[in-house]
Amino acid sequence: MGALGGQIAAVTGGTHGVGRAIAEAYEREGATVVVNGDAPAKAAVEGLLDQTANEHGALDIVVLSAGEVTDGDPIASLTDDDWQRILDLHLNHIFWGIRRALHHMIPRGRGRIVVVSTVEGKLPRPGASAYAAAKHGVNGLVKSVAREVGTQGIAVNALLAGSTEESHALSKLGRRNTTNEVAKVAVLLASPSVTSITGCMFPVDGGTMPY
Is 26 noted as a catalytic residue in this protein? Predict the structure, then answer.
């Protein structure tokens, strides 16, 4: 039995990219995994978590990974609609998911929530103001919620993924697939045997972010 044997996991954005890599890694480690695609709407996020808990009788692990890198327009020309769309995709999706996950986890007194964020939640680039603001919000949300529920057996952490190109250019450690590296750390953070890691930001970026 693997590190996640017997665990029930739900992964948003689990049909491609980082989300898919995490879902596949969890399955290899013995978890039962339910996924959806990039569906950051409130009903889709909450529906996935409710479905998983109802069909399998538990919700041990939630991974919130839906959403692609979003540039948007320069802040001076960014419309209200585009601002809201980016916040829904990258921040509100995480809020809806965390809130619903806790609805299932708090009564059981245990659970693991893993949020896929980005290094731009610490080191933003020009021309992506809404995206950077959303990711900063995600990182703050993770830290705050971790303090709220840490005494209730629930760990909440974020993975700060870097771009594959930058990671390969900067890394001298032989890492050839940043996505798979993110998945490996996600397995660690979901493990029920890891009990003292919460409220942390884990960069997996080949040295893009020095601290």
Answer: no
